[in-house]
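okkk here we go again. third time trying to get the magnesium ion bound version out, last two times i messed up the smiles copy paste (missing a bracket lol). double checked this time i swear
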Amino acid sequence: MHEDASPSAPPALELSRVVKSFGAVVALRSGTITLEEGSIHALIGENGAGKSTLVKIIAGLYRRDAGTFRLRGEEVDFHTTAQSKAAGIAVIYQEPTLFPDLSVTENIFMGRQPTNRFGRIERKAMRAEAQAIFARLGVSIDPDRVTEGLSIADQQIIEIAKAISLDARVLIMDEPTAALSGVEVERLFAVARSLRDEGRALMFISHRFDEVFALCDTVTVMRDGSYIATTPMSETSVAELVRQMVGRDVAELFPKLPAEIGGDLLVVDGLTRTGVFHDISFTVRAGEIVGLAGLVGAGRSEVVRAIFGVDPYESGSVHVDGRPLPKGNPRVAMARGLALVPEDRRKQGLVLDESVSRNITLAIRSSLAKAGLLWGGPENAAAAVWSSRLEVKTASLDAETGTLSGGNQQKVVLGKWLATNPKVLIVDEPTRGIDVGTKAEVHRLLSELAQQGLAILMISSELPEVLGMADRVLVMREGYLTGEFPRSEATPEAVMFAATAEKEGAL
Amino acid sequence: MTTTAPETQTVRTYKAHAHPAWRRVLVTREAAVIALLVIVIATAIASVPNFDSPLTVTYLLRDLAPILLIALPMTLIIITEEIDLSVASIVGLTSVMTGILTQAGWPFAIAAITAILVGTVAGFINGFLVTVVGLPSLAVTIGTLALFRGIAVGLLGTTAITEFPEYWTDLAKDNIPGTPIPGIMVPFAVLAIAFALVLHFTPFGRSLYAIGLNKEAAAFSGIDVGRTKFLLFMVSGTVSGFAGVYFTLLYSNARGDNATGMELSVIAAVLLGGVSIFGGRGALHGVIAGVLLIGTLGSALRLAGVTSDIINVITGVLLVLSVVSASFLAWLRSRRISAIGRKKGRSSTAPEPI
Amino acid sequence: MPRTGNSVTRAAGRTFKARETGILLALIAIIAVATIRNPAFLFSNDGFRDLLLTPSLLLLVAVGQAIVIITRNVDLSVGSVLGLTAYLTGRLFIDLPGIPPILVFVIGVGFGAFLGLINGALVAFAKVPALVITLGTLYIYRGVNVAWAGGDRINASDLPADFRGIGTGQLLGIPFLTIIAAVVLIVAAWYLRNLRSGRELYAIGSDPAAAHLYGLRVTRNVLGAFLVSGALSGLAGVLYAARYGTVSSGAGTGLELQAIGAAVIGGVAISGGVGTVWGAAIGAYLLLTINRALPIVGIEDFWQRAVVGALIIGAIVLDRVLALRQSRKLLEAREVER
Amino acid sequence: AGGNGGGDDAGDGGDANLAITFLPKNLGNPYFDTSNAGGEEAIEEFGGTFAEVGPSEASPTSQVTFIQTAAQQGVGGLVVSANDPEAICDALNEARDAGVKVVTFDSDTNAECRDLFINQATAEGIAKSQIDLISEQIGDEGQIAILSASANATNQNAWIELMEEELAANHPNIELVETVYGDDDDQTSFDKTAALLQTYPDLKGIISPTTVGIAAAARYLSTSEYKGQVALTGLGTPNQMREYVEDGTVTAFALWNPADLGYLAAYATKALIEGEITGEEGDSFEAGKLGEYEVGADGVVLLGDPFVFNADNIGDFDF
Ligand SMILES: Nc1ncnc2c1ncn2[C@@H]1O[C@H](COP(=O)(O)OP(=O)(O)OP(=O)(O)O)[C@@H](O)[C@H]1O
Ligand SMILES: Nc1ncnc2c1ncn2[C@@H]1O[C@H](COP(=O)(O)OP(=O)(O)OP(=O)(O)O)[C@@H](O)[C@H]1O
Ligand SMILES: [Mg+2]
Ligand SMILES: [Mg+2]
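finally!!
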């Protein structure tokens, strides 16, 4: 019990030693955070630290396994998100969760539309209110259009509008700024500050330190599902926070090995897809790691998906090792030595309900077949080789991949693609959601592979990772390639400027 | 310029399987269906008069043959998370085609092959609409169910064609010499083995499961999801066409309404056999056992004087129970796991936060 | 009221509504052609009456089906539910002579709702696919019906004349059945558009996972959708008995595909979240009116089903083409915004 | 395989297997309910075992399963109304090979697939009575249409053909505009009647030579503006038609007594099982209360002439 806490007003929201596990994965070991009214509280931590899990427990989406959860001093236990909403908690989830077939207005008010005495929804009032909120946020989105096809940024803005319209005492924002431009972020901050000044409690999750320092009053750091420390913003520094987050020095995370740079292995020229990306040209050479940086939503994933052939493109060309690659044909791309470790491993990288063995051999299944027939033996043998090489932690090869921890899942995806023996390896967010130790291992592996002569194109939203690993850094913004820096010139300022500045300048 | 062969010093070794072989074989949905089938057969032999006669086997397999045949491609289609409701209409259409062409004086073999090709074309239409136009297969095949049936009924109008060369009708009906097993079981066995091999022991089969479980990940692994499904719909049309020719010969009868409603029998049997309607789960031996289970149960009950309506009720109950029990077991398991998790959480006395 | 939307998104909104308008025009065109060929199709008492009357039963079932499909489910058991309640209706009049028709309506609708509730409970609580469950109950309900009826059937003479009058009678030239169907349609459409739980049905069908995140009562709503579908099929069953007088154990066989067909033609997306009961209702009228118009236009009876099939496919292909056009326009609009 | 029945009554069969199964076109059809009741009455009289099975929809392929089951059960005789003359032929022959005596009634198969056919009336007799009734009711001129059962029903098609010949030969002013099929399904027949009246505004009369069809058509007419304007006749049962004869929708229709048909079929089957007859032309047998019958050409036994029901006599019947 916190007898020493201010006895006058209980904190708006208080979580203490909350535990949550999914099967064998312990997502949250001891989640602890205290939100005060009239204050903005930052929650930071590496990918997979358990921030979103904590948020979902507050939202009533998950039920905690243990620990206490108090709201204005009273212990609560939410079974559904409706209960937390009713208790005055508004949540912006990390991934936008809109109903694509419904209008923007309906999305904002779903389940609590203004009604008249007879329960009839008052459409006019609803629409007017939506417009008022958009005006406050300073954005122009047609409240009558369906949300299908909106950009990620617009979707995120609707999520924010939704949370604001709730008029909640507690507002939780899980990476709301990830997809927003500088101007939009500023507007959001203005709204957040005014809400704080009205006496509400806010929680803000972000990976960008500048934002955290600009907006928040207090900061809580988490690592590996555990609470590490809570400090007033004024008494800490970026270096201190990073030390708390990572638990060691950052430098050793990026063990860059010297590699001999060879000829062009991947040549992309003038790639264009209307509305998504434009005139993208670059090359990746043997032995080279090229980083592709940019804000979330810049279109980096779309570019590499088009290169690999999963997505279409309208014009431009792709050459692998000197030979042109046909459009939209991943099979040929694979045969020519291209491999893509996709950004969303749960959706794109793995068949979660299949065994580890089947996943690792999925991309090489044809070459494992003898006389057209494929038996379990060769599959398991091939899978065992790559599992042990990457040290995948699994009890058996027929365990369902979905039961593995995130980092081990990522290793399975890496193994699956390394098994194809590629010349060019494209990795999209290779360390998203994996723990610190594994992260270093992945980095070491990428470095080794480059040393062996692979051409590697690495997309990452973590600037330190890009700067630490890449021989060359490309930057994308809004579908355009806006910068290219050799390792020596790639400073955080230069890269961030290329990723954001021009847009702000234009506005 | 390639990755080196994986280092030989294996740090970890991996068991291929978490459970011993007998458990993997016996504790499965398929094994349960087969066990149920054996129980039904044993009970029927013991208590239903005349069930043990060879005629039972002959009639049962003959009548089930079209369902058995169509269940093969249907299994593959449902495993890729699609569905084909138009199969019975394709049977009707090819039956009518066989009749019309035979009546027009074509040699029967040519007429039959042409009819089967019509089935392929029907499957092509389904495949095109589902994969190229990108429509949901449930909606598409509800449409083609009406369309193909409508063409069949429209072509033949009031008449039924009943004259077919005796050689062929006998061929369709004759047993394998010296056994009570109808000759149609020979092509069925060949097809069943081929389908089983393809589904369970080829790279193509692996891709079907991957598509059913996660088609995005499948596409990212270089699997041409569209082309694969297209192919399956065409195979489904072809096999349904073959079943249509057999159906025509078995009853010496080409009519527009032949095999009406058979799609539901096929799908019911496939689902009973352990194939998940959400795709990615199921095995052919389970499906064959599922078809035989429904057929045998029906045959035994009819012999015992139970009317066809009760048989329908039993089929329906089996179907509902089979999915509900699976989801009930999954629910039990998840409850156990979360209970364990909660216990773990409580016992771990985390240090008081700073 | 200021409009912030640009012209493209407004155009997209228009194509959305164009779907119902489109098939309404198709329906009107068919009626026009048939009437030109044979004026009695529209301009005779019976012609006008049958035009309204014939699709009324299907309309009721299709409205229920549309509600279920909007939640991203499907109800294959509607034909069996209709058959069973129709038979129940007859039995009630035979076994309880003098029972007031209104009570029969209440029992029939209640019984249909109960059958729908069984479907809904299995789907919502056991979390198993609706297609499998309702395929199972299609067999079960029909089997129970046949077992119960045996060789018997309900004859017109078993039903009181005033009850049968509901099936054939009219008010101001409009058949009672059509009036009942219209009332149900208006109530359902109003509910889906104007009440919170109606909108929640759309949300659930649009993205079930997001609906869960929102804290919408997914289970309760899905249960409710099946219950309504069952109740409407039950109502249609009672009215079937009133209209046709004779009820055999096969009544309503194959109706499920017609109902789904009507909904799909009317623009209710099989993947949920999109469509209106108006569309489903027009779809029902289109399906059955085509059936009656084809012989007049000179197309043989036997080809009707083929035309219906082509119609269903044409409708969903059209939908798809419109959707593709819309998404391309939206992309281009984004391009311009940049 | 021993049957579950067995008659030990008089007759040269002695311990003959008198388990007889009736297989109508479909269940839930009142016409067959009546005929099967006649069969059951006869079987009770001579001490056999009666069973009734059938598909719920009138299709030949679904009848095959029931024929096969009967053969497996080893019944003594099977009485069938065929949904298709050819499609169930092989199944019937297989049953005969297994020792089952096969008698068709109401709707025949090819002569070589059964032992006997119990004909309710000659096709000529039926066709002529239908045409006579309609021409009388519409004044021997104008458009008429036929509402038949299924498109493949042997008996229906034979009658329709003969009706067309009769019209061509003796009623040149009557035009048969269309034949539609109600599939012996009440709703379909009802809707088809509606469609007919729409399509042919000048229609004077409808012939529906099927009990389901005529009842459905009468029900439609009775509440429509065409009541009394469009004549309706055909083959129907008195109980179903009583209301419409009394309210003037229908003046007269015809039928034989279906109960007698089933009764006769049962006795004929018994005679076959006991070896009293073999189905040869000229064989004769005793059929209980109906008296003695003789087998005609092609193994056909004729029940008698159709009977015309009208307002004057309908009160005398109850079936
Ligand atoms: N539903 C789930 N099932 C299994 N494991 C899960 C589930 N949700 C989260 N996890 C795991 O729990 C851990 C914590 O995840 P969480 O999403 O809370 O991290 P986070 O701090 O929000 O990371 P990020 O910054 O990437 O958003 C991760 O290892 C994740 O893989
Ligand atoms: N569901 C969607 N609907 C419409 N547009 C989308 C959608 N998802 C992404 N986009 C748009 O596509 C472009 C690229 O998005 P994406 O998030 O893949 O970019 P990214 O640079 O790969 O970001 P990340 O850091 O997440 O990898 C953006 O303009 C985004 O707005
Ligand atoms: Mg997170
Ligand atoms: Mg990306």
